[in-house]
Amino acid sequence: MTHLMNTYGRLPVCFDHGQGVWLWDKNGNKYLDALAGIAVNVVGHAHPRLVSAISDQASKLIHCSNYFTIDLQEKVAEKLVEHSGLQAAFFCNSGLEANECAIKIARKFGHKKNIDVPNIIVLKHAFHGRSIATLSATGNPSVREDFSPYTEGFIVIEEGDIGRVKELAEANKNIVAVMFEPIIGEGGVIPLDLNFIKEVREVCNQNDWLMICDEIQCGLGRSGRWFAHQWAEVKPDIMTLAKGLAGGVPVGAVVVSEKANILRPGNHGSTFGGNPLAMRAALETLSIIEDEKLVENAFEVGKKLKKALSKSMNGFSGVLEIRGKGLMLGIVLDRDAHDILEPGLKAGLTFSVTAGNVIRLVPPLTLTEAEADELVKRITPLVRSFLAQPKI
Ligand SMILES: *Cc1c(COP(=O)(O)O)cnc(C)c1O
Predict the structure, then answer these.
(1) Which of 117, 297, 326, 329 is placed for a possible disulfide with 361 were both Cys, Cβ 3.0 to 4.6 Å?
(2) Atom of ligand 1 nearest to the CA of 186
(3) CA-based diameter of the chain, in Å?
(4) Are the C-beta atoms of residues 42 and 294 closer than 8 Å to each other?
(5) What is the reported pTM?
(6) What is the dihedral of CA 161, 162, 163, 168, to 10 degrees?
(7) How far is the centre of ligand 1, averaged over its atoms, from the C-alpha of 99 (Å)?
(8) How confident is the model at residue 390 (pLDDT cuts 50, 70, 90)?
(9) Is 180 considered catalytic here?
(10) Residue 372 sits in a domain of what CATH number?
């Protein structure tokens, strides 16, 4: 009898340790990790630099408080500002917290303009988290079900529908922001059209709205650029980060432009947010991404992996599409794919299934070409035999 709440349908494997892109379970079986703890272990498992940074910091100071100056926060913020071209950062502990903060900034931005009920435009397949406000901003019914009443102030539109954004700009003077994932993650690995992102930026400029990019899953090099919105050659006003930022140590961040840098003491805070342990891990993770050129690696290896998967699964009638960018790829099937997860483990592979029918591959950004070849070699027969079963 388990003493855990029943919040996850868990697979019957317990991992013991990892090294690079590899994981070992308690029985000594080895797995190629194409999930990376859901796009978290960006520098791979047990990276020696990250291990020694974390242990060194743990032996010095794990936590103090944001009542004091924390130099490590300054250093992490400096790197995020450098790579994004934005102005300032706030640190918290998770993705939903980062999005909560972004929503608060957008609301304050509205109130400063005398908008009493600020509205934010969000996308239908978005996932922004599981707190009451962020689930209210999330389209997926299974995330929302049973948790009403929802937070008001979110207007849902279809991905890519710039016409609707323009209509709303005319019709609704309470809008203060548009919030979206440049590459939708949980919603099924859906890269947004780059022209849509550019046009949203323009509408935001014309109407004095904030553009909020949720880069929690697609950011930090995964798409082959530091941040996925950079593919559209635009800058957001607010960007949220979490997942990979500290290589597996819980952390979240909100990075803002000058225009959105409006929170003042008392407006927001977090006890743990940006503590020395998390910041040391984040600083080392960002330095490893820089030093090992992992953004470039994600681009190169991701491009080859996508091509190799398309080639090896060419002619599989149940594979509708292979989509995504860099090392954020989705194999879209014509049926629910959850029953491929256990055979996947037996084939020595971890990955996840999202949006019901999308096999999601988000391996560590350290994945080499040889490891990508091995991934193709393992997943192709797996998908073939899964598709050979009668559809349920
Ligand atoms: C994972 C995720 C979140 C939520 O992050 P948590 O750390 O689980 O709260 C929000 N937005 C996106 C795009 C995500 O992928």
Answers:
(1) 329
(2) 15
(3) 62
(4) yes
(5) 0.98
(6) 100
(7) 8
(8) confident
(9) no
(10) 3.90.1150.10
